[in-house]
Write a structure and sequence with these properties.
The chain is an alpha/beta fold. It folds into 2 domains: 201 residues, TIM Barrel (Alpha-Beta Barrel); 63 residues, DNA polymerase, domain 1 (Orthogonal Bundle). It is 43% helix and 16% strand. It is built from 10 helices and 7 strands. Helix 9 links the parallel strand 6 and strand 7.
């Protein structure tokens, strides 16, 4: 069984629609994928409806990636199989969306006042699917489109970072809150790409106390040594190991599809399903 448990669509910072993701996954011979857009779950129904309408064979695991900030670190928490009608879960997503919109308006205002770069909120909003999660990539693309930077990378370097005089950090829930709320919604909370967080080992212990159930050991950023380290950490705390490509778009440099390219053992799927059933029976 070929799986990829970390994929983004146009409902956050991915470049492909849910339908295109489905077609791409099938083209990559994947059997199961998780759609894990940032701070929303809007792509799930669209993908499943498309699969049904075309009589395709692909399993979609409902997922989400909650962006949090903790002690200066951006910490991402994945969630799988949440009850999307759970009020605490709904409230968390609404809080995250509100914070994204407020951050975007403030950055746009500062870009105009301090850099003379004139972009409108609508210029950013149109770069994401309706009701999707606006984020830094969309702001960077809007800056580039209006001539404020030569390319997206330059926009990031000049404006989308904590050293810039026009950048405002987003107000988010904590990773601890995200783990607790996903757990409350009968979901499986997972520490995403922990290699990005220098305090990952210590933070894992804290999050386990809040209900963390997994850690993403298999990720395109993780070297074999990192995979081994985080797999060992998972074993130490009795966590499920998960993995995925963190797919956003085909590689611009190589023209290749990276979805499903990094090795993710098929036994991960079995453990995830067993955990889902355990939670349902609890």
């Amino acid at each position: 069984m070929k799986i990829d448990l970390h994929i983004h669509t146009t409902y956050s910072d991915g470049m492909l629609s849910p339908e295109e993701i489905v077609d791409t996954a099938i083209g990559c011979n994947l059997d199961c994928i998780a759609l894990t857009d940032h701070d929303n779950v809007l792509s799930h129904k669209i993908a499943n409806d498309y699969i049904k309408s075309k009589n395709l064979k692909l399993e979609i695991i409902p997922g989400v990636e909650i962006n949090t900030i903790y002690k200066g670190y951006e910490v991402h928490i994945l969630g799988y199989f949440m009850d999307k009608t759970n009020q605490a879960f709904i409230d968390m997503l609404n809080t995250q969306q509100k914070a994204r919109i407020e951050q975007t308006h403030k950055i746009i205002d500062l870009l105009s006042k301090k850099q003379g770069i004139k972009i409108k909120f609508e210029d950013v909003q149109k770069l994401v699917a309706p009701m999707g999660s606006i984020g830094r990539p969309h702001i960077a693309r809007a800056i580039t489109s209006c001539g404020g930077s030569a390319n997206v990378m330059e926009a990031y370097a000049k404006f989308i970072n904590n050293k810039s005089d026009v950048y405002i950090e987003r107000k988010t829930v904590t990773p601890h809150d995200a783990v607790e709320i996903i757990s409350e919604a009968k979901g499986i909370p997972v520490f995403a790409h922990p290699i990005d967080v220098d305090i990952a080992d210590k933070l894992t212990q804290e999050l386990v106390n809040c209900g963390l159930r997994g850690i993403e050991a298999y990720h395109r950023k993780h070297s074999p040594a990192a995979v081994e380290h985080f797999s060992t950490l998972a074993e130490e705390y009795g966590l499920i190991v998960t993995g995925g490509s963190d797919f956003h778009a085909p590689s611009i440099n190589h023209g290749t599809i990276l979805m499903g390219k990094n090795f993710v053992p098929d036994w991960i799927y079995d453990k995830l399903i067993r955990e889902k059933k355990r939670i349902e029976l609890a």
